[in-house]
Amino acid sequence: MSHDPVPLPGIAKDDLVLRFWGVRGSTPVSGPQYAEFGGSTPCLEVRCGERLFVIDAGSGLYNFGQNHRADLPREVDLLFSHLHLDHTAGLPFFKPAVLDCDRTIHTYCGNLGGESAGAALDRLFAPPLFPVTLNDLRCTFTHHGFEAGEPLVFEDGTRVDTILLNHPQGSVGYRFDHNGRRLCIISDIEHRDPWPDPALAEFVSGADLMVYDGMFTDCEYPTCRGWGHSTWQKGVELAEAAGVKALAIIHLHPAHSDTMLHAMEADLKAAMPSAFIAREHQSVVVGAEQVDLPDALGPASGVVRRIRVA
């Protein structure tokens, strides 16, 4: 498949860049108490230089589409962690899918025993659950299945490594290596004994940035055991064991307000100074050494944050 260049203003062409379009877990939320960290469910944009990937199609995919209509390639690679509703609900509201007849969206799903997401999405987006099917949209969907643990190797030579995560029905973690930098996306996951998991620690080893599921507090987790999510403390333990340089916490609990998340972030930074709680619309140049922004970023800032790793 061919991919057009997708330059991002203000970013060097060889940078590894991550942008958070949705960081909330389980269900979207709105209101003034969520103004800073945001209320959209998971959607991440990863750029390996001029190569674009989208991770998950939660409600944050809507804003991703609104912001990138002009600079998207004709073929978009959408990598699902898994297919739970908070990771798929934004798909039919993705403007490039709804309006662009020359667009092809390639989906990749690795937690269904090698099957693609096609059959599941066709069941979800169809009457009586949804008024139209994905085939009614103007774009073309092409669905690819793989087994988590297999690398994804694309026609231009780009490689994305994968790992199966502990989550109900499974979830897939992704690792991007580009220009000497490493980014790992580890969500949705529930920690288990022994922890850190040796295979996972090896997978994220030496990452410049690891994105990790920190949905619950230590107090909340015991009553939610088995739900498939973790805590920021377990993210720090994994990061320290694997030599991860910086940590971003996502899949934020829908009941956790800005005030609560600020308090959690203070504790997080005390444990790992290069760690932070992700904010919707926040961008990160992975592995950059200087800090360009204060920690508090509004959801509409659209600015780049460089994470100190030295």
Automatic annotation (TrEMBL):
SUPFAM superfamilies recorded: Metallo-hydrolase/oxidoreductase (SSF56281)
Pfam families given in the database record: Lactamase_B_2
CDD domains with a match to the protein in the record: TaR3-like_MBL-fold
Alphabetized SMART domains for the sequence: Lactamase_B (SM00849)
Domain Metallo-beta-lactamase, residue spans: 40-215
PANTHER family: ZINC PHOSPHODIESTERASE ELAC PROTEIN 1
Official protein name in the record: MBL fold metallo-hydrolase
Protein species of origin: Methylobacterium komagatae
